[in-house]
Amino acid sequence: MNIAQDQRDNFVHKAKNAFKSALSGVLVWRVISIWFFCSLIAAFAGPFGTYQNRFDFFLIWLFLLGFSILVAYNVDAFCRAFMHRDASRSFRDFVFASIASILIGLSIDLFLTHVFATGEELRPAMLELSAFTMAIILFMFALRAVIPAAETRDEAKDVLSTPVMPPASLPRHSRLAKRLEIPKDARIIHITAKGHFVEVRTNSETYRTRMRFSDAVNELDRAIGLTVHRSHWVHRDAIQGWVPTARKPYVLLENDTRIPVSKTYLERVLAANLVELKDLEDALEGAD
Questions:
Q1: Is the pTM of this model over 0.90?
Q2: 278 contacts: CB under 8 Å, gap ≥ 6
Q3: Sign, CA torsion 241/168/209/211
Q4: What angle is formed at CA 45 by the lines to CA 38 and CA 63, rounded to 5 degrees?
Q5: Which of 4, 46, 64, 212 is the least buried, fewest Cβ under 10 Å from its Cβ?
Q6: What pLDDT, on the 0 to 100 scale, is given for residue 227?
């Protein structure tokens, strides 16, 4: 019974985090700008014969495209949260495109039928809407393959819009590893700032060098990790989970090291969909 309850709680926790992550991804100026201009273009281009009254249809397209974007971000967040870490990128993209196109096509058809009461001559079939959505998604995938990813923003901006973290893997030999002469088969699991120095920990060794914390993180060369505090960075694969219920929330590493989570980086940790653990001290008090 407890196992079933834990599974339900874990599902609800992941679902809430996925929704929060999707919402934070939508509410950025770039997405809002794209949403507005695409609605404007659709109103004047008049796809599916919707050009009779441009202002009315601008409002309709504004709603429909906004809802579609929100659905797409949620489907993507849920795929990242619930699909197995070992699933390939192409498989995840296929699942995302299939589910998103069906949900968006069905939703728009329901809105046009029951909310906007659009006439049959102006309303495309649900399958046509889904196919149109699938074509747009495939076009976006093609653009993503051609256009290189944007450079990582500075930490202050990144905290506000960090998406759900992708599966992690052993990174290529980073500049930081080369600087400290860390072997290629060793994984950096934790970096912490201590005054003008940083301590870099692997599974078996601790290295110390004089440099800024932000420069050390930058020299990891996009290793999949998480800054949970202004003085702490951890590798994604080294994380067992996190304890949000402790007096001071913390991330628990594979070597049982506790890394504090600051309020500034709390949203980033929530977006990472980490396994939620029980506080050991609370468990011991309960046992007493």
A1: no
A2: 243, 245
A3: negative
A4: 45
A5: 4
A6: 92
